[in-house]
Amino acid sequence: MKDLDHITITPDALPREVCDRIVARIRADQASLHPGQVGGGVFPELKHSRDITLTGNAAWQDVEQTLNMAMLGALIRYLREYPAALISPLMLQQTGPDGTLRRLSAEDVATKDDAGLIELIRTCLRPGHINLQWYRADEGGYPYWHCELYPRDTTCETLHRHLLWTLYLNDGFEEGETEFMYQARKVKPRTGSLLLAPAGFTHTHRGNRPKGGDKFIATSWVLFQRAETLYGQG
Asked: Entry's Gene3D superfamilies (predicted)?
């Protein structure tokens, strides 16, 4: 029986040499590094890392584009496996051969070619801000069990998060897994692999402490377009 934990791993989302270059740039860019934050601010007992936020950082625009393209490739695979992730929340419609509107089915999404699926993705979804995270060996980590949805943000941006993703930029250390509570699953970092999972409490997770080596990741979210974009100002 197929394991439906709704967590997917794309093994070679980014080549190792590209990951190595990003890691070297993180180590070198001391000016952009800042203490890692959670939703309420800087709390090292919850998350202990040094981060670089890419959005709005012109020096990292090329890396932001590279990572978003890697995420898009993984997202296409994810929606082919779980088309309801797009269909269930939005009740999408398309024009049929007779010119009338009809509801899209999961089969419609699963059978679209890449160009058609990318068009649908760009209509309904958008990329979030990307955060590069550096967890030092034997001290860094994100041990707090958390999900990616929370109501503290007054703009409600965090409530638009649909999927989370993590791209592992290196390996060669012990532990340091992304651990999911309810799925009882630990995802071991592998250089260039990209994890996608739902953003809600069903996929509560934590980042275990790396041992014997530093851990580098890129993280972000796939968000719904805002209502005014999807449905107009009304």
From this structure: q2cbj1_9rhob like domain
The CA distance from 147 to 135, in Å, is 19
Please provide residue 190's backbone torsions phi and psi, each rounded to the nearest 5 degrees. -130, 130
User: Is the distance from CB of 128 to CB of 218 less than 8 angstroms?
Assistant: no
Phi and psi at residue 146, to the nearest 5°: -150, 160
| Distance separating alpha carbons of residues 90 and 231, to the nearest angstrom | 11
CA dist., res. 48 & res. 26, Å (int): 16
Please give the single-letter amino acid code of residue 161. Answer: R
Residues whose CB is less than 8 angstroms from the CB of residue 175 and which lie 6 or more positions away in sequence, other chains included:
208, 209, 210, 211
pLDDT digits 0-9 by tens, 125-153:
999 999 999 999 999 999 999 999 988 77
Q: How far apart are the first and last CA of the chain?
A: 45
Under 8 Å between Cβ of 216 and 133? yes
